Amino acid sequence: MTQHLPAPAPRTAAPAAALAPPPALPRRIVFLAHRGLGNPAAGGSELLVDRLATGLTRLGHEVTLVCGGPAEARPYRVVPAGGGLGHFLRAPGTFAREVGACDLLVEVCNGMPYLTPLWHRGPTLCLVNHVHTDLWRMRFGGALAPAGRLGRRLEQWALAGAQRGNLTVAVSPSTRRALLGLGVAAERIRVVHNGVADPGPAVPRSAEPLFLAVGRLVEYKRIDLLLRLWERVRPVTGGRLVLVGDGPERARLEQLAGPGVEFTGHIGEAHKHRLLSAAWLLLHPSAVEGWGLVVTEAAIRGTPAVAFDVPGLRDSVADQVTGLLATQESAFAAAWCTLALSAERRRAMGEAARAHAAQFRWSRTVGAFRTVAAEAYALAGRG
């Protein structure tokens, strides 16, 4: 997959505090997001915002994150605005009291919108990881279906209506297509891919079959499906299935789990990368993703992925090259067994995955986002 991203910003010997963005760039940038990286439920979206905010801070911008609690200290300013759904109601007031003004407001639009164009008159940029159209149906079924329909309509109105005068950043071609499907104008959308960090030293690959799934334990990640498939795969491959992450589905999933399954709960980055290095395969049964950041994190470790051919994952997994994509449950199980039983094919796909992941660096992500931020600032007549 050819990526059209700007080159990393040149290195400089000057300390970050001495840097200042050029006049054509917004100096004070505020991100508005549901969660910060310190939240136990933080995932790929929160990591992306953290990398953007940290990178922009190093380039001399004054960056603030207004988010739901709990929050933790970061290289940029973090302003908590309460948790739960009430956070979306409190956020405008928190912004007015604690921030007051900025040169660019970045609304992280992941499902429930903040409707910033209704209460903020300055330059605004919308950041979208993935559109929640199908997830509203999955999360709100049965008696809650009316709430799901309301959520879908609100999201569509916010992205295609309330934000129609602003630029929108999508994290993948899949997210771009979903936005077009909602009615967002093509000329408003810019694609900025996630990056991946230098992983540091690797640990040896596990001698026994080790299969890994990483992510929040929520419905749309479909770990229950993975557990059912494991019952088919385990007699063929043997080994262990390790599930990294926590969430509201954990208790139910633990009851469904058979032999050879291990739940780690939430773990640190170093532990996660040790597991990514040791694993034979990364398994990603999710129904939809914006990009699937853990796929790239596994790839930089030389670990191929088996996933479903769904939005986001069809962007981060190069089918038959860096991993295998399946369209049906039986095909997923077959791909899992095929790679588990072929060390040579796993090795070849792992090397291809490592080379593919090398295209994605957070410095390039920050540079690409900064270019869009400058465009949004100029379009608003503030450049």
From TrEMBL:
It comes from the Bacteria. Pfam families: Glyco_transf_4 (PF13439), Glycos_transf_1 (PF00534). The keyword Glycosyltransferase applies. InterPro entries: Glyco_trans_1, Glyco_trans_4-like_N, Glycosyltransferase_grp1. The keyword Glycosyltransferase applies. Residues 43-196 form the Glycosyltransferase subfamily 4-like N-terminal domain. Residues 206-355 form the Glycosyl transferase family domain. SUPFAM superfamilies: UDP-Glycosyltransferase/glycogen phosphorylase. Keywords: Glycosyltransferase, Transferase. PANTHER family: SULFOQUINOVOSYL TRANSFERASE SQD2. This is Glycosyltransferase family 4 protein. It comes from Streptomyces physcomitrii.
